[in-house]
Amino acid sequence: MAISANSDTTNVLYDSLTSSSRIKIVSYNGDTAKQNADLIKGNIDALVHIQPVPLDSGHYYKVNLLSSEASGGSVYNLMRTLDYQALQIELDDAHKLQREYSFVPQIVPGKKYRQIDFVLPGQLGFSILFATMFGISFVFFNLREQLVLKRFYASPIRKINILIGIGASRLVFQLINVIVLILFGHFFLNFTLVNGAITFIEMIVMTIYMLFLLMGVGLIFASLAKSDTSIPLLINLFGFPQILLSGTFFRSMYSQHGCKTFARRFRLHSLIMPCAKFLLKDCIYLTLGKRSVF
After folding, report:
1. Element (H, E) at 106
2. Are 68 and 109 a contacting pair, CB within 8 Å?
3. Contact predicate 245/259, CB 8 Å
4. CA within 13 Å, CB half, 16
5. What residues contact 70, with CB distance under 8 A and at least 6 apart?
6. Around Cβ 58, how many Cβ atoms within 10 Å?
């Protein structure tokens, strides 16, 4: 959330919000144009304006929460959080018999997103994660157990050619899977491609990057496994924390701060978050920066 420049900052609620660890306040330093652009795109949940209303019986504050349709209704969750903060303040002053703060939400037009726009990037990551690691791990484990790799090593075939051949086959198969998912979501479920073909190509580039990373993990598991029954265990130990914390089924911004810091280290997070930015924040690949992508 952000606080408007004309908002009253002398009240107890403002001090409570600035010191709260559950609310992130974005400062724009007077840059109204960027503030309004972020509000319309849904980069912030609401613009809060605290307005004092003079009364004979005491102080009364009207809190306006300006939000856009792009936030997906998150302003109401924010309003409940602010209302809880205000109740705590009012309970500390026991002699008050009426509410001191009232909250008024206001929704302005913005970019409209559907539920599929939040779900599909996570499902792409889920599909790539398990399909790639299971495929690579079992293929190389079976080649090792059947002594096929030793025969390859005894032949003039270079080791890198073996890796390239098997990796390319998995890469092509998974790319077809991703392309079908994106096109099906776009044409049948109204999945939003903000910049059209450019966004589509950006998602394919991120998919290729993620596939190469996960193929390396699959090779490590294939070399560590002593039997084919231990491979699913290793993959699940590696994959399930990423699925739960990287935004596959729900947006990682709703996780606790410690979980979000931990989730940023996951490789799945490196795919889902840039894809979400391509779709929801109207970004292009070159402007995301190394931290977002790598």
Report:
1. strand 101-108
2. yes
3. yes
4. 15
5. 40, 41, 42, 110, 111, 112, 113, 280
6. 10
Cβ–Cβ contacts within 10 Å for residue 162, how many?
A: 17
Per the model's pLDDT, the better-predicted residue between 119 and 268 turns out to be 119
Distance CA 294, CA 285 (A): 12
DSSP H or E stretch at residue 279: helix 267-280
Q: Considering only CA atoms, which of 184, 236, 174, 181 is closest in space to residue 207?
A: 174
238-271 in b/e form (b: 16+ CB < 10 A) is bbeebbbbbbbeebbeebeeeebeebeebbbbbb
Write the pLDDT tens digit of every residue in 1-38. 888 888 888 888 888 888 887 888 888 887 888 888 88
The one-letter code for the residue type at 180 is V
Angstrom distance (rounded) from CA 280 to CA 194: 8
pTM: predicted TM-score of the whole model, two decimal places: 0.62
Please classify residue 290 by burial: count the beta carbons closer than 10 Å to its beta carbon, then call 0-12 exposed, 13-18 middle and 19+ buried: exposed
Residue 202 identity: E
